[in-house]
Amino acid sequence: MDFNLTQEQTQLSDTLRRWTEKEYDFETRREIIASHEGVSQKAWSGLADLGLMALPVPEALDGFGASGPDMFVVMQALGKGLVIEPYLATVCGIEYLKHDADKFTDLLQKAATGEVRFACALGEAQSRFNRADVAMTAKADGAGYILNGRKTVVIHGAQADHLIVSARTANGTRERDGISLFVVPANADGVSRSDYRTIDGMRAADIDFANVRVSDDALIGAAGEAWPLIDAVSDYARALICAEAVGIMQAVYETTLEYLKARRQFEQPIGAFQALQHRMAEMFVEVEQARSMAMLAASIAGSNNPEKRRHTVSAAMIRVGQAANRVGEEAIQLHGGIGMTNEMQVAHHFKRLTAFGAIYGDIDHHIARFTQQPGFRKIG
Amino acid sequence: MNLEYDADDLAFRAKVRSFIEENLPCDVQAKILNHKRLNRQDYKTWHQILHKQGWIAPAWPVEYGGAAWSPVQRHIWEEETTRAGAPNIISFGVNMIGPVLMEFGNEAQKKYYLPRILSCEDWWCQGYSEPGAGSDLASLKTAAKRVQDADGHHFIVNGQKTWTTLAQHADMIFCLVRTDNSGRKQQGISFLLIDMKTPGITVRPIITLDEDHEVNEVFFDNVKVPAENLVGEEHMGWTYAKYLLSHERSNVAEVGRSKRELRFLKKLAMSYTSDGKPLLDDPLFARKVAILEAELMALEITNLRVVSADDGKSEPGPEVSMLKIVGTEVQQRLTELMVQAVGPYGLPFDTDFLEGGREHAVTGHDDAAPLTASYLNFRKASIYGGSNEVQKNIINRMILGL
Which of A269, A293, A367 sits opposite B301 (nearest CB)? Predict the structure, then answer.
């Protein structure tokens, strides 16, 4: 048992910290948010040069075959640095394609160098957090499929070159059997995307698929059997956003601590007041408990034991989700009026924490999922 | 970062688990697992079994008769003993006065007392709190005056200690006493070892709200203590007390115990029903259990992070206070949910059953009968050992430094 980072992980963490401080400061980020594209090609190239896109790609395909803990380190750093580039979306795309690596060798190799970006178009207007709630259809047609339907709030959907799309090839809307996954070029005929900002400085898109024709080559895995893969990659993504949230919370905690020492009222630093001290101590506890759960989730993210994986990851989403709410809200309260202004970095960290469970399931969703796992009733 | 136990750890776990299975007395185990009360002999029996095996003092160095286990091994030991339902070792001897004597005691004290701690020949209790000195421990008033008579040098002790846990069973008490009033209140405190049979000591029970006798008041009326029972230097007791508190970080989180209690809670929630279904199938109740379980999972990792970083030398940081806060909150929450799980059966109060005077509870619900008393008893957890509010102050002293 070892909770320390390896030498490589420490180096990676330091490198990313320096990169975000130098290349991705508050003003640069603000310009990226305000830009038409909503992401930065320069930043993307910079991250690719650091090897970030190659990390999750298998070694046989020019990647590094990174472990869960490696990705924990990366996401923590990107969270702290408030990076809004389509990294998570691309990493998840890579995870889907890895499942059928022989078929998607070319795309994976391109992804490793940062040449292509992915987005995961899974959610629909009615589906909320249930990824099996798929109404979009894929109809077999000769040597391919015809896709029809609409995906909503697809993170970085308009910034991606390829979309990973879930569609139903059999059965009714919420059945887990009968879902298939396709890789669709974003510029394919019949695909139309409407891009918009999200509250945390990112972008998302609603995407319409009108008679979009794809060949069999676009199918990931076997037709109708995508559910276990969607469940696994979603858990992987959850482990990553837990790590990201911990990076953000650490930054928020440090900023708030400094503010309590620096801000003076009633002729003393406000940190001298016990009412605020106890809230600060509670924030400390929240961050550490969340860190523990994020570490646990990262260590289990790639597990081939789905039962254990679901149990652990949902527990992490519960505990980190609670901490994200509490730490974010407390940070604003402890900053007082200045915390309400858009020019404080802590406000932007808070907004990113607010987005924590919006795509991959909020606390209630994961409580329900956790209690439905067989492990919840195991008392041996 | 690797959260798995290595092969040596797993082998160690297997070894201690089979030892516990073979040696833990069934009657004691049954009392623990069913929340019933232990008597003096229950504690002593298990203590002596471990002493015979050489495992009574996992953290002590071998030269003093300890097992010299690593922090991770101690964690595994704690987890395995609590999982099985073994009694806690009364920590006042092994975990508290023992390490203080090793660090600050003279050779004669070490030679005399340490073996007696290991063998449980001396049952120790702790004379810290006073009616006027709770969280503000340094304001203690119990006075010790140095005198010389025909028998040699002595301290004459007068005053009162309170909340003295299991003093009714104790042979010895280690006491913080005031030997000087002239300086700051932390100065002028001395650390004395006192035989409980000395004339002038009176132990009076404090019956807690669960009608249990766990804590006591201890009165000192001109108690004559030989001067050789002073630990270290006169007036330096506060330093030793702080050393004790800062090294008392073993098992503050009580993760093993809480994991056991979580299993008990789930067992209850599967056998007690609501609207014809097990309570655990009620989403409202299951939700509370799930939130608590996630907290406990996090605490287990947090605890392991602290344990594996413990090199035995560095001062503990704010993490230890955090473990105390979260650990006790989880313990309390478990008792709350257990009471809730049994509904009306939380009401009957059956002390005869609790103390082993009757085999089965008057209602027939043996699993439910002790639960409300246990809930009431565990309100102490956020108060003792430095209240959780004091722990928050400690965290802030370390992180804010204001």
Answer: A293
Q: Where do we find the tokens 């992401």?
A: A39
Nearest CA in chain A to B305: A3
Of A116-120, A215-219, B286-290, B353-357, the least confident: B353-357
Block residue for tokens 């109708």 = A224
Least Cα separation, residue A277 to chain B (angstroms): 6
Q: Which residues of A touch B386 (CB under 8 A)?
A: none
Angstrom distance (rounded) from CA B167 to CA B214: 8
pLDDT of residue B310: 80
Say yes or no to pLDDT of A165 above 70. yes
Positive or negative, the Cα torsion across B322, B328, B330, B333? Answer: negative
Q: Identify the helix (H) or strand (E) that includes residue A67.
A: none
CA B36 to chain CA centroid, Å, is 17
For B3, the closest chain A residue by CA position comes to: A1
Task: Rounding to the nearest 10 degrees, give the CA dihedral for residues B332, B334, B340, B345.
Answer: -100
Q: Following DSSP, what letter does each residue of A273-290 receive, concatenated?
A: SHHHHHHHHHHHHHHHHH
- ipTM score of the complex? 0.96
Q: What is the pLDDT of residues A307-348, one digit of tens each?
A: 999 999 999 999 999 999 999 999 999 999 999 999 999 999
Nearest chain A residue (CA) to B260: A379
- A299 in B contact zone (CB under 8 Å): yes
Joined together, the tokens standing for residue A369 give 């999922």
Beta-strand runs (E) in chain A: 118-121, 137-141, 144-155, 162-168, 179-185, 191-197, 203-215, 219-220, 264-265, 268-269
How far apart (Å, rounded) are the C-alpha atoms in residues B331 and A374?
A: 24
Dump pLDDT digits (tens) for A60-78.
999 999 999 999 999 999 9
Q: Which residues of B touch A293 (CB under 8 A)?
A: 294, 297-298, 301
- The C-alpha of B309 sits at a distance from chain A's nearest C-alpha, in angstroms, of 8
Instruction: Tell me how close the Cα of B325 comes to any Cα of chain A, in angstroms.
Output: 9
SS3 B401: coil
Task: Check pLDDT > 80 for residue A380.
Answer: no
Residue B348 confidence (pLDDT) above 70: yes
Flag whether pLDDT at B313 surpasses 90.
Answer: no
- The pairing of strands A118-121 and A162-168 is parallel
* Selection from B185, B175, B281 nearest residue B231 by Cα: B175
Q: Which residues of A touch B289 (CB under 8 A)?
A: 371, 376
Kindly tell me the sign of the dihedral angle through the C-alpha atoms of A147, A151, A155, A158: positive
Cβ <8 Å between A261 and B302: no
